[in-house]
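During the first year of the project, the team set up a workflow for recording each protein of interest as an amino acid sequence followed immediately by a discrete structure-token representation. This format lets reviewers and collaborators read both layers of information side by side without switching files. As required by the reporting guidelines, we include two representative entries from the current panel. The first entry is reproduced here exactly as it appears in our internal archive.
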Amino acid sequence: MRRRNFLQFAALQAILPVQAFHGIFSGNSGWPASKDSRTWIAREKELVNSLEKALHPFGGIRRIISGRPRVLVKPVMAYNQPTGTGYNTDPVLVKTIIEWCYKAGAREVSVLDQTRDEWTQSYKNSGIERVAKDAAARVYPANDARYYTLPETMSDKSILIHQALVNADIIINLPVVSIPRDEQVKGAIDNYLGLVWERNKCIGIHQSACLTSLLSYKAPQLTIAEIWPENRQIGSTPPDKDLRYISVSDDIVLSDQASASILGLDYSQISGLKEAILAGLGQQNPMPEQIIKL
């Protein structure tokens, strides 16, 4: 292990449980499931209140921020859709997380996504690009291959990953999980694959190998999922109570399983979840105490 990685490991070890390290460093052969992992779920009238309630038992953002780390925040801003429709991560969540990271001592926060619609419009109309820049985060473009590279320690030599992931000490995954609009629900695992150039190389028969390689290189220390049990139509009147749940987890695979539970879906309906479980990256049947509704 290189000296820089060793120092990062030592700093994180003081504030994170052992299971959080599986998959972060290249020496690990995989990211085995852990019965010590937890997902906490909250649903309050205000989105930030849900976030605060779900983060509290985890220990808050300060649990993963130590020293002056570089933080990568990976939201969904892949669609040319406005806020409040369940396509992209809510800008309020992104802005709040960035501000909390800086308050906890982060030296730099980066934000990016690979978009499914035209990237400049998706970045703009999601509302995320503006709030991220206003909060002093660095927002990377989505269409430039020069930002992608193949680290020496990646086991899968067919995929390139974003330089922001290579440089990051801490990764926070912000997926949106909603009722299916196509063949599968896109959740935390699918969102994390947005850090791979030509992400279509990570689907089908290659998905298990791609996931194992990516999570064995670096896994998110924190996944905060925005779960929509209903799809809200554009222009509709917001209800008195926010539709969304917020889940907080130290395990990306468990996060998607919790989302499936909330939405009443089989785990095979969440994109990449079945492949992750078959690859040994998660348990097919989590213990009841691992998914906690607050």
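The second entry, processed by the same pipeline in the following quarter, appears below.
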Amino acid sequence: MHSGGNASSLPLVGGAPEPTINQLSKPGRRASRFPKLDVPVTEINNSAIRNDKPSLPEVSEHDLVMHYSRLAHRNFAVDVGFYPLGSCTMKYNPRFADYVAGLNTFANSHPATPSAFTQGNLEVLHELEKFLIEITGMDNATFQPPAGASGELTGLLIIKKYLEENNLTNKTDIIVPDSAHGTNPASAKMAGFNVVEVSTDVRGMVNIDDLKELVNENTAGLMLTNPNTGGLFEENIMEISNIIHENGGLVYYDGANLNAIVGVCRPGDMGFDIVHSNLHKTFATPHGGGGPGSGPVAVKAFLKEYLPGPIVEKNENNYEWYMPKLSIGRMHGYHGNFLVALRALVYMKLLGKEGLDTLGSYAVLNARYLSSVISKVIPLAYNEPCMHEFVATVKDLKKSHKIKAYDVGKALLDKGFHSPTIYFPLIIEEALMFEPTETQTVDTLDDLAETLKAIIDELQGEDVSLEEYPKNLPVGRPNELIPAKHLTVNWGDFELLELTE
């Protein structure tokens, strides 16, 4: 059974709008009742205590359950349909990893517990570090950064501290590709660097000639994703690394696309000095909805003492916390999101070396198959073999039929598929970025391609109103500018806004 499909595969609630929880409310109704107190009542005198009861909906238990069930059915989820979102990876997460993370001894372990009583937790981090540095080709790692962007900032602060310790304070520039994730230049700026943009050539790679012109005595380093944001492998990566190193800079690897190369090649062997990897993108933690995340940073040996601390080290038969001598300090209140790290270790052990070695290969195979089929419907942005993701563009359809990437995404939602990433990378006009990941079957990929062709054919028909899509979902096309400009935090205000106008 494949995870894509037509609209009937989505348990969405259609027809007339269902009543809101406030409209279901009737005075005196209760979803639960508590027994009478069998202890003396004690009055609490505190100015912070409100004098009146909160105005909450009064509904029966069944109405309450139905309300939240209806809301849940309106959400598109990885357990419901296919998520071809580009640049996000790991759409499905093995339940076994979640099961282990939910075990009481792990889930209820407090991070402030002395290391003598948390040897198992420390062993998890120590063993995961060994796995991670082997996968990335690094020497040491920290698990403090709670997300990818935090990992970027960590790596850049390490570069900054390294330059200061070596009296290289003249190096103030970080080079970032024009196709990079927005967090790259933002992180560089937050770390106190100047951002210098290097262009992309016609093949979708870093423009080597432009890079050579930009690099000078002020170059502190380069941030790069490989495969890059266009889904292409930077075939000149060794030359790129050498250009930066020859000018005394460091090379930073954005691990957003790591799952494309796991078990095939390593950033450390490409010349990278620092790597952040998103455990929530590549190694089995649910991704999206605001978290949880984990962006561990791994470095070559000469940068170990700059890592945020403490980090785990093994001393004879015990695991202990070690604070690097030149540490940039903490990047997290404790030691990062431990349960995310645990899920990653469980996933790695579940797959084993053979499974991890084929992880990237299947991701690339799925993407290349899907790109070959979709290219017959929508042209690709670059005519190069893609890795785990690829970018198509409807810029020609926009000119001929006023069809935008936004319209295609909305129409796909109507057919039981989540939209691909749209309008990214920013350098590609009317971009649609697809990433099937390693978990999808060929049936699902064929289903998506056929559905996409049907949508394009339908949108090119006569007397078709593009704004009609989606037609069958509870929410159509809300005006996204109004919520961005008017923060609405209570139901009364929300009712006053005409979101669809």
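For the second entry, the following points were noted during internal review. Residues 338-374 form the longest helix (37 residues). Residues 1-15, 496-501 have pLDDT under 50 and may be disordered. Both points are flagged for discussion at the upcoming steering committee meeting.
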